[in-house]
């Protein structure tokens, strides 16, 4: 098979894959969720199997514990977060009024020094971009909600996902070995190398980053609650969970937490304590959690991750959000592989070596 034929085959395969995802997007969610859970729990099952426990027993124990914890979170923690979130939204207008009263004079003093024309142009630009951004985010959320929270989809997640995750986790190593046996022998080495890089990327980002987000959410939630911040637990927990989107989670969480603290405490020691909680969280993430749990094998740029998540949500809803990082990882690895092939090819080296006698000074006297 020539290079052109291979390129045509993979192009048709990719188009067909995304077409099938789009065609069956309404029913794929529980299967994708089950696959993600099986992938997430596979290392734990391997460790139990290495200790002499059969794969079926290990899978049963791990799957049961995972979904028991999930039900605990769903039945106990989610209602508490929901009540705090509802209370926060109810109090939000009051926080805004307090901020305008306390901070308004300082902002007005600064704005008085800016030329009116400049201020008006900046204000118009912000209003226009904000309206566009809100409209775009609304469309994304509509697609996510319509694709992920319909009643039938919820029931399928509740009943089908545990079954899918159990069988996939039990047979994970067999499935991988069977796929490996079907690889073309000539290209098997390169495909395995790409698969290892994809696994390193997903393991670092999905397994590692999700653990970092949960730990950060608990730290911020407990820290802000102990600092006396109203709705501190839900603000901290959401800050940690949204940290899955690089930079955005921390910036958004700090902005909300700082604003609520400023409205509640004003300028003073308590506000400083809230700021210190966020600073300590960043130090923990940057110096301990991310290096230990994620490592340096992720290979996914923050901008690429944000684009993948938003694009996936806009096109395929919640299913697209779940598929975004794996697809981004695959594309990233394939691009790096193609770049390595190009750098090792004659196309890159052609003409780089000077011809004999062309611009080369003689070393002879």
UniProtKB/TrEMBL annotation:
Family to which the UniProt record says this protein belongs? Belongs to the autoinducer-2 exporter (AI-2E) (TC 2.A.86) family.
Identify the taxonomic lineage of the organism of origin.
Bacteria, Pseudomonadati, Pseudomonadota, Alphaproteobacteria, Rhodospirillales
Q: Which InterPro entries match?
A: AI-2E-like
Major place of localization? Answer: membrane
GO terms for cellular component: plasma membrane
Ranges that cross the membrane: 12-41, 61-82, 144-169, 215-238, 244-262, 267-284, 304-337
- Full protein name: AI-2E family transporter
Keywords for this protein: Cell membrane, Membrane, Transmembrane, Transmembrane helix, Transport
- Keyword Cytoplasm, does the record have it? no
Query: Which BP terms from GO are recorded?
Result: transmembrane transport
One matching Pfam family is AI-2E_transport
The listed locations are:
Cell membrane
Q: How is it placed in the membrane, per its record?
A: Multi-pass membrane protein
Domain of life here? Bacteria
